[in-house]
Design goal:
about 130 residues; transmembrane; membrane; Membrane protein triplicated sequence; transmembrane helix; mainly alpha
């Protein structure tokens, strides 16, 4: 429940960003980084308890979103690019899919993309050298 509250605060507060400002993507990047930091702090304080699956999906999803925002900031604000190219499609589709997956996982708390399963499966292989 607290994870949902943190995400609600982040997304609600980011609605007050004026998209006509000079660097909207950079501001959204900073919002995602602050949210990741808050989630990590939350994870630190629940030591000894089971960390929900949603926590990991939020960290991965917000990291992906932050990288997309940073890429768009570089492309649009720093390079002054106004021509459509494949990264813009990745940004547009990736943001929506990432946000939807995070919302679904917050609701059902299941490893829907089997990310944690894959990490556990390959972690043993690389650490043990098998």
């Amino acid at each position: 429940m607290l994870l949902s509250f943190i995400m609600m605060l982040s997304y609600t507060s980011s609605m007050f960003i004026d998209p006509t400002t000079e660097t909207p993507h950079l501001k959204m990047f900073m919002f995602d980084i602050v949210t990741i930091v808050l989630l990590v702090i939350w994870g630190y304080f629940i030591k000894g308890k089971i960390i929900p699956v949603a926590f990991y999906y939020l960290i991965v999803g917000l990291s992906f979103n932050a990288l997309m925002f940073l890429g768009m900031h570089y492309d649009v604000s720093m390079q002054d690019n106004t021509d459509y190219w494949w990264f813009w499609a990745l940004y547009a589709i990736g943001q929506v899919v990432s946000d939807c997956v995070m919302a679904v996982v917050l609701i059902i708390n299941k490893d829907v993309l089997k990310i944690l399963w894959l990490v556990k499966r390959f972690k043993g292989r690389f650490i043990l050298g098998v």
